Structures are given as structure tokens and as C-alpha cells.
Amino acid sequence: MEHLAKWLAGEMTQAELTQFQRTPEFKEYERIARLSSQLKPEDMDEEAMLANVMSREKRVKVIPMYRKPMFKFAIAAVLVIALGISFVFRPTDAMISEIASNGTTTHALLPDQSQIALQSGSQIEYDKSNWEENRSLTLKGEAYFKVAKGKKFDVKTSLGTVTVVGTQFNVRARENRFEVECYEGKVRVKNDNSEVLLTKGQLVIFENGDKILDGETQSSEPEWTIGELRFRSATLEQVVAEIERVYDVDIEIKNTSPSKLTGSLPANDLQKAVKMLCATYSLNAETIDKKIVLSANE
Predict the structure, then answer these.
(1) CA–CA separation, 10 and 219 (whole Å)
(2) Contact 285/274 with Cβ under 8 angstroms?
(3) Which domains, and CATH codes, for the chain?
(4) How far apart are CA 127 and CA 120, in angstroms?
(5) Quick one: which H or E segment has residue 88?
(6) Alpha-carbon torsion angle 41, 43, 47, 53, nearest 10
């Protein structure tokens, strides 16, 4: 509980605070602390209290009482008790997190038997304790979903939300770009600016909140699940960022001109992917200090 004490005392460094905010327990701590801050200490007549104690029993040693320290202890006691109750009714393992680190992919099975494939550098999180009533999860990165039929199913990202009942679809939320492809059934895609209904074989792409592309997909599943990286009107920076995640490598871009890529690169052959990228953008590639450096042809 040392990290909790440091947080309550405001003694965390920025790095410690950032790491602490990523833990599953932080939201619960924050909620309870917020409620505790709303408590108000009652006004106390200290002199009257002292006289009352003295009159009852002169042998009793009188200890001065100060409102501010007492209130701090009261808040701490309430927080500890509230946290204890919280852990009894909402165990810490109710929040489930699945992560695919750079250079790896992983698969997850949800409580309703819905299936998820996570692309490299991606994460999902959901509450299993209330899953039957609230099929909702948060996604950072990219994932392919095969959703079991049932109540509505929400995939929430920082760039928008996808809502379905039972279907198959892929969601990619990277930086400022939000892409959704539907392979079966229907999905509703919503962000701050608009709402789109996709049916089988349709896709939509948003960038900075604006829709930049809607069209059709000929694939029955995401290309990355079968060894390809598919790009649609992607910048060189976006393509390189995806290669870095999938292959877990560092790539530096030097002296290149802005351009877009629509096409595919291999997801299981780094050398081939770099050669194809260089041919597409007229680049040179060299390895310097274990880093791939891409630069424009002279």
C-alpha cells in the first residue's frame, strides 16, 4: 500500500503517478478519495468539550483536540474502510487485461465465448464481474473480434466506439487514426463528429475525427491475421510505426517527402518488408547501431 500512501500525501513523482494511474485499482482509489474529500468536519466547541470532560472525571488526563488533524485521520479511516468494503464486493481480479507486446500477437476468450485476436502493441481491458449485463471493453491499438450473439457489445477506444450484437469486425485505433472493417453482420461506429453503420464487406477510416475514407473490403478477415500488413492511404510515418510494432524494431526516417501508401507488406519477413517499402517510396535503408535508417535516394 506504499504507493497509495504516497499518492494520498501528494508525494509521487510524475513518473510514479503516470505508472500508478495505469493500474486497475486507480479508478477505485480516485473515486473513494473524491467522495472522502466531500466530507465536512463538524464545528466543535473545544472549550466546552474540555470543561465537560473535566467535570466528569478530574483524574482523566485531558488531551487537546485539534480539528484539522482529526479530520485528516477521519478521512484516512473512511478511505481505508471504504477500500476494504470495495475489495469485498469488487475483487481486484474483476478487471481483466490482455496485452500483445510489440513483436507478438495474442488471442483472448471473453466470458460469453466471444473471441479476440490482438495485434502487436495492443491491449484490451474489461470487467468480468458484470459481463453478462454489460458487454463492454476498452481497446488500445488493434484487434479482430468474433462476437457471440447476445446483448449489445461495445468496443471503446480513445477515438470512437464500435457497437454490435453478434458479428466479426476489426478495429484499429492508433494515434489520430480510427479504422473499422466489418466482415459479418452489422457494426455501428461512432465518434465525436459522426455515426456510421457498416454491413458485411464495408470499412470506414477516420483521421483527426474526420472521415477520410469509406469503401469495401474483399477480405473475409484482417490481413494481419494471415501474415500481411494492409495500408489504405497511410503516411510513411504510419507505415513505419506499424512495422516497428509488428517486428519490434527501431526505424528512423530522414529527409523524406510526404506521400501516401495503399497496399500490403509482409508481416513475417522484415527484410522483405523494408525492401518493398524502399521501392515504393524510393528510399535507401541501412542499419546503424541496431536501428534501421531510411533516407531518400540522392
Answers:
(1) 52
(2) yes
(3) 2-90 (no CATH), 94-223 (2.60.120.1440), 227-296 (3.55.50.30)
(4) 22
(5) helix 67-89
(6) -60
For the entire predicted model, the pTM comes to 0.67
Give the number of residues written for the chain: 298
Residue 134 neighbours by CB under 8 Å, 6+ apart: 127
Read off the C-alpha cell for 88.
469485498
- The pLDDT, as a whole number, for residue 255 is 80
Phi, psi of 34 (to 5 degrees): -65, -40
Strand partners, 95: 127
Angstrom CA distances, 284 to 155, 256, 278, stand at 40, 10, 6
- Residue 166 grid cell: 453478434
- Cα 274 from Cα 138, distance rounded (Å): 32
Amino acid at 280: T
With contact defined as beta carbons under 8 Å apart, do 148 and 169 qualify? no
pLDDT of residue 281: 86
Mean pLDDT by 10 residues, the chain (298 residues): 62 69 68 54 52 48 43 47 45 82 96 96 95 94 95 95 94 96 95 94 96 92 95 93 96 85 94 93 89 88
Q: Give the CB-side neighbour count of residue 277, counting CA atoms within 13 A.
A: 33
CB-CB contact of 183 with 169 (8 Å): yes
- Which three three-digit cell numbers place residue 210? 474526420
49-57 long-range contacts (CB < 8 A, ≥24 apart) are none
Report yes or no: 234 and 277 within 8 Å, Cβ to Cβ.
no
